[in-house]
Write a structure and sequence with these properties.
Helix content: 25-40%
Shape: globular
Low-confidence stretches: none
Distance between the termini: 53 Å
Number of helices: 21
Strand content: 15-25%
Structural class: alpha+beta
């Protein structure tokens, strides 16, 4: 009725515009009106046999509020879960079509797996037969389309049975096309998909062509893959006794301080913080600043960045976060992080209060602070979870990077963490091994969003649906735990060698001297060697400007003097030093003590060098293969897939 009402007015407007154009030579203004009216007619009065397009890619967070409200109202079926702007275009395009007509779009492929694509996936499954899905992933074959494009071709179909019996012709471009391959290869890949479209089962170095039943598409994800991969994918699901989401309390991201340069600090003696008692103080250096401060260790927590999260371990740079919160018991049980009041800071932690007060203006003026107090984090979520046993992983990585934080040590912002529920908290090592294994990474990569360069997003929405095993009676669990312990032991030994000599002094009972040296040149990292002169005097030399020579390096015995120089050289190599920075090196007073610590270091280095981490990880993969009862052929499918994707 609305269209019938407006039609005569639209026609009258068009007639007036034509009259003004013809009689008065109006120019562009009236042409604009004419184009506007024509667009209204074209978009609202006509039906089409085909809709073809490349809709704009804009996150809903960047859509103006008024426009977003309009889209939410007009297209509620597709505008779901922080959707991207291209999602409602599917909705609108399908509205223009009659039964049996076609729509073809090139869009980001993330609507197939991301939460925000749930509405689009449901809409398509309820209204159309999916004819084609040509997924170009992160291959870069389209020069101007950088958002992981997929070409989707749909045919409107009212009959549910016909939709469910439909078979989709799929193409998948692999992620191993060389960035420097040139446009000729890119064009060749696209042309090959066209030429081989009618040959499901075709595969070469760059593409796979296969059929996939539409009935296997679900609202929560579209894991499109060849049949041989689907059988393995499906078996992993069927053999599992739980999903990760069933056995976790939360998959969460870290805090947001709103002022990293104030809260994230370098501690000049990190070992003192980890071993400190309440009331101890330490010198800190805020990131990006040259001014040092004294602060109580009570308000410092070890802090890791995303790039420091590696497979099985944290490669900690020694940073800390200034943490103005305390864990307190709550009436409902458990603990909750409470902000320390200003009066308490002033009376019990005066150095921390002085530190915050010296940055009051920049902290109080944070736009993200809202109604929070001026010195607290802008987004202090999940604080009570950090000091509990958890798995930590990198948010974006080219392989699974889970590690077990069984002590609840680490605080962070950008990494993610998997917090097991209380019933399974003791299975952290077994869960870490499974999630790092080839089996579950194979599954994960089929349901996660791909990023450029073969990276994947390890986010909550992709982690929680992953199948897993948590039955403690499983005979493979002791084998898995032993392999994890072996890996962690080697890593810990390697980390110990990196922290020579401090890491070796805990069990040393002899007396120590201290060598203090001020670096003349910035060295990131230090690369030094031992130099000897004709008088058999030994020094440690780094470049032309830095020479370490100290009375504590002297001994009456020539070989002992050389050993002392080797000790000092080993202690400084690999560290970072600023110009003018003083570095203190503890060294045993006795020659036997120097030889003893160097001998321990040498033994540890031999242990690390002689341990094959690849073999230890292969043990875990083998155990997880057995855990899911995968055959040799099924294992080969997983191995082949992970070599490419």
């Amino acid at each position: 009725g609305v269209e019938d009402f407006f039609e005569p007015y639209v026609n009258d407007m068009l007639e007036n515009v034509r009259y003004l154009q013809e009689e008065h030579n109006d120019g562009r203004l009236f042409k604009m009106f004419e184009d506007t009216v024509l667009a209204l007619v074209v978009k609202n009065y006509m039906e089409y046999d085909y809709v073809v397009g490349n809709p704009p890619y804009v996150s809903s967070q960047n859509i103006p509020d008024t426009q977003k409200e309009m889209l939410d109202t007009l297209y509620p079926d597709s505008a779901t879960n922080q959707y991207d702007l291209y999602c409602p275009f599917f909705d609108r395009g399908l509205e223009w079509l009659g039964e049996g007509d076609r729509l073809g779009f090139i869009t980001p492929n993330q609507f197939m797996v991301a939460n925000y694509g749930e509405g689009v996936r449901r809409l398509i499954q309820q209204t159309a037969a999916v004819e084609q899905i040509q997924d170009f992933r992160d291959s870069g074959v389209f020069e101007d389309a950088t958002n992981y494009p997929v070409v989707t071709v749909l045919q409107t179909e009212d009959d549910e049975e016909s939709r469910n019996s439909n078979t989709i012709r799929c193409g998948r471009v692999r992620s191993n096309i060389d960035e420097d391959s040139g446009r000729e290869l890119d064009e060749q890949v696209v042309e090959t998909i066209r030429e081989e479209y009618d040959d499901p089962g075709y595969t070469d170095e760059y593409i796979d062509i296969f059929d996939f039943p539409q009935a296997r598409l679900f609202e929560d994800r579209w894991p499109v893959m060849p049949e041989y991969e689907w059988k393995v994918f499906n078996k992993i699901e069927s053999e599992a006794d739980h999903l990760v989401g069933d056995v976790t309390e939360a998959v969460f991201q870290g805090i947001m301080t709103g002022k990293k340069g104030v809260y994230i600090v370098d501690v000049l003696d990190s070992d003192m913080v980890t071993a400190s008692d309440s009331g101890d103080t330490v010198t800190i250096l805020p990131t990006g600043s040259d001014q040092e401060y004294e602060i109580e260790t009570d308000v410092l927590r070890p802090f890791i960045d995303g790039k420091e999260v590696e497979r099985w371990q944290i490669t900690w740079s020694g940073l800390h976060i200034v943490h103005p919160y305390r864990m307190e018991e709550v009436e409902t049980g458990g603990k909750e992080a409470k902000l320390i009041e200003e009066e308490t800071l002033s009376s019990e932690l005066p150095l921390a209060m002085e530190y915050f007060d010296s940055h009051r203006n920049e902290l109080a003026n944070r736009s993200s602070l809202g109604d929070k107090k001026w010195y607290e984090y802008s987004r202090p979520q999940n604080l009570e979870r950090f000091e509990r046993p958890k798995l930590v992983l990198s948010k974006i990585a080219d392989e699974a990077t889970y590690m077990s934080d069984v002590e609840g040590t680490w605080y962070f912002t950008t990494p993610y963490s998997v917090l097991l529920d209380d019933e399974r908290a003791d299975l952290a090592k077994e869960m870490t091994a499974q999630l790092n294994s080839k089996v579950l990474d194979f599954y994960f990569r089929h349901i996660s969003a791909v990023k450029a360069g073969g990276f994947y997003e390890y986010l909550n929405q992709y982690i929680t649906p992953v199948p897993c095993m948590v039955d403690r009676a499983n005979e493979e669990f002791p084998r898995i735990q032993q392999s994890v312990d072996d890996i962690l032991s080697v890593i810990q030994t390697g980390n110990k060698t990196d922290r020579f000599p401090e890491a070796y002094l805990g069990e040393y009972s002899g007396q120590l001297d201290y060598i203090t040296y001020e670096w003349q040149t910035r060295r990131y990292p230090i690369s030094a060697d031992v130099q000897g002169d004709v008088n058999s005097e030994f020094t440690v030399q780094a470049g032309r400007t830095d020479t370490i020579k100290d009375p504590a390096m002297y001994s009456d015995d020539r070989d002992a003097r050389q050993k002392r120089a080797e000790y000092v050289c080993t202690a400084v190599n690999g560290r970072n030093a600023k110009s003018g920075e003083e570095m203190t090196i503890p060294i045993p007073r006795s020659d036997d003590g120097v030889a003893e610590l160097l001998s321990q270091l040498d033994a540890d280095q031999r242990e690390v060098d002689q341990t094959d981490m690849t073999e230890l990880e292969a043990e875990i993969d083998e155990a997880v293969y057995e855990l899911f009862e995968l055959t040799d052929d099924e294992r080969e499918v997983i191995e082949d897939y992970l070599e490419v994707f």
